[in-house]
Design a protein that fits this description.
The complex is a heterodimer of chains A (about 220) and B (about 160). Chain A has helices at about 10-20, 25-30, 35-45, 65-80; strands at about 95-100, 105-115, 115-120, 125, 130-135, 140-150, 165, 170, 185-190, 205-215. Chain A has about 220 residues and is α+β, with helices and mostly antiparallel strands. In chain A, the strands form 2 sheets. In chain A, strands 1, 2, 3, 5 and 8 form a 5-stranded antiparallel β-sheet that branches. The two termini of chain A are about 45 Å apart. Chain B is an all-alpha fold. Chain B is built from 8 helices and no strands. The chains are: A alpha+beta (about 220), B mainly alpha (about 160).
Chain lengths: ~220, ~160
């Protein structure tokens, strides 16, 4: 690419110009600068495939107290009878019962190995990409925070920014991460109605953890 | 440029520009798409008509820098960058292209405010005046931060 004839036009200004922003300074600079013209052509010719942006379900109309209380009591009774927090069995979904402000949540870990998607494994190799999937039902969605603690490490990594997800069945948390090194990693996921400022720890409430181990070569 | 009033329209209109912007930092289109998608998912429940392309640009910068600060993600991105084509560099820092490797190295030495100026100047190719307006600080502050960034790069070279 040739050098710019003066101060280059920033990418933001070029993007706005490409979107139709009338900017005489940009027009006159482009008339004399092949480098910036090349950048504009590059972004105009670039096709970006974006995933669908799912809109969370709208909150239902206000209900009478008994319409809320009766099903809630029934659900609570069923939850007490059937659903108890339990240690996570590696390689399968984990249930968090009665998360404050969110309700029951099922968390899953998905491994992408060269396009082969598995949600029932707990081993990793270099190059694997991991995603967290969430099943929940509240109309307000849930905040998901992921931390990874390598065996022997003191501080966890937070490979994904805390994210708010719209509830649904196996909703992927935005972003993916990779595990490196030769030691087991503990992946902990916190679910909450609000974002938290600190990384999730295994002992915190509403946190589920799973240990994934490196594969022997 | 027409005003975009709802998140879906903004996602369609600005999403590609934001993906390109994130890709210039991360050197990975796949991760850039993830960053932009995650940003809009977060903004959906609290969307405001004040959200415009400069605001989103800044939000993408911060999210990219969060990824670069994470050691595991950084290692993966750096490994991927080695296989990618060399970045376009119209603005250089003392003849040095500011790529992912340098941003990563500086991420351990500079605070968020300086890293934001670093990306605005050497990745987004903004002028000092544009950066000042974009970040809501004085031009003098931008100049001071750029000097601090230069000093950090020199210190890095001396260590290497």
């Amino acid at each position: 690419m040739s050098a710019c004839t003066g101060e280059p036009i920033s990418w933001l200004r070029l993007e706005r110009y490409a979107l139709g922003d009338a900017d005489a300074a940009v027009t006159s600079h482009l008339a004399t600068c092949a480098a910036c013209r090349g950048c504009l052509d590059e972004l105009r010719g670039d096709l970006v495939a974006l995933p669908t942006l799912a809109v969370p379900a709208r909150r239902a109309r206000a209900l009478r107290w008994w319409q809320i209380a009766v099903p809630a009591l029934a659900a609570a009774a069923l939850a007490v009878a059937l659903v108890r927090p339990r240690p996570h069995a590696a390689g399968g979904p984990t249930r968090l019962a009665g998360v404050k402000g969110v309700g029951d949540v099922v968390l899953g870990l998905v491994r992408d190995r060269g396009g082969a998607i598995r949600d029932d494994v707990a081993t990793f190799a270099p190059g694997d990409r991991w995603k967290v999937v969430v099943t929940c039902a509240t109309a307000d969605g849930a905040w998901i925070d992921v931390a990874v603690l390598e065996a022997g490490a003191v501080l966890p990594d937070r490979p994904l920014a805390p994210a708010h997800v719209a509830c649904g069945n196996a909703v992927p948390v935005p972003g993916a991460f990779e595990l490196t090194g030769g030691k087991p990693n503990r992946i902990c996921v916190r679910v909450g109605a609000e974002a938290a400022s600190v990384a999730p720890a295994p002992s915190d409430p509403d946190v589920a953890c799973v240990t994934v181990t490196p594969e022997a070569h | 440029m027409e005003a975009v009033t709802d998140p879906q329209a903004a996602y369609r209109a600005y999403g590609p520009a934001l993906v390109r912007k994130a890709e210039r930092v991360l050197r990975s289109r796949e991760d850039a798409v993830d960053v932009v998608h995650a940003l809009f998912v977060d903004l959906l429940p609290r969307w405001s008509s004040d959200v415009d392309l400069p605001y989103l640009y800044r939000a993408v910068t911060n999210r990219c820098l969060n990824l670069v600060r994470d050691r595991g993600t950084r290692a993966r991105l750096l490994e991927r960058e080695q296989r990618a084509a060399a970045p376009v560099a119209r603005v250089r820092l003392d003849d040095q292209v500011v790529g992912l490797a340098l941003i990563s190295a500086l991420a351990d030495r500079l605070d968020a405010a300086h890293l934001e100026v670093l990306v605005a100047r050497f990745v987004d190719d903004m002028t000092q005046d544009e950066i000042a307006e974009h970040l809501g600080v004085s031009r003098k502050t931008v100049g001071r931060r750029l000097e601090h960034i230069r000093a950090a790069v020199i210190a890095l070279r001396e260590v290497a």
